[in-house]
From TrEMBL:
<feature type="domain" description="BURP">
    <location>
        <begin position="1"/>
        <end position="113"/>
    </location>
</feature>
<dbReference type="InterPro" id="IPR004873">
    <property type="entry name" value="BURP_dom"/>
</dbReference>
<dbReference type="Pfam" id="PF03181">
    <property type="entry name" value="BURP"/>
</dbReference>
<protein>
    <submittedName>
        <fullName>BURP domain-containing protein</fullName>
    </submittedName>
</protein>
<dbReference type="InterPro" id="IPR044816">
    <property type="entry name" value="BURP"/>
</dbReference>
Length: 119
């Protein structure tokens, strides 16, 4: 799963309105991968299995751009590193509450296909 930007006005920055949010994507465990600044495709990937939920979110930009975005909510932040940059930006500490954010374009989340046992 990834964030897709199928239409573009060419505007670098714009405000977005949430048009639709899916129910959470039922995946008991998943791997998030983030591109690294190298001259070839290189990703930093990490495994998550508890305390977070994934959502697909349909967004509309102020200049008409439509974006199908992937969002994650870390419901339980108590085990996150206290020096994580997001806590500084939001003035929070681990365990203060949930943190939600969008995955930028070119960031990827791998989720398992549903099995008969999970259906």
């Amino acid at each position: 799963l990834t964030t897709q930007w199928p239409t573009t006005s060419g505007a670098a920055l714009q405000n977005y309105t949430i048009l639709e949010v899916s129910k959470d994507i039922d995946a008991p465990k998943w791997v998030a991968c983030h591109p690294r600044p190298y001259p070839y495709a290189l990703y930093y990937c990490h495994y998550l299995d508890i305390g977070s939920k994934l959502f697909k979110v349909l967004l509309k930009g102020q200049y008409g751009d439509i974006m199908d975005a992937l969002a994650i909510c870390h419901i339980d932040t108590s085990d996150m590193p206290p020096n994580h940059i997001i806590f500084k930006y939001l003035g929070m500490k681990p365990g203060d509450g949930p943190l939600c954010h969008f995955f930028p374009v070119k960031h990827v989340v791998w989720v398992p296909l549903p099995s008969e046992a999970s259906s």
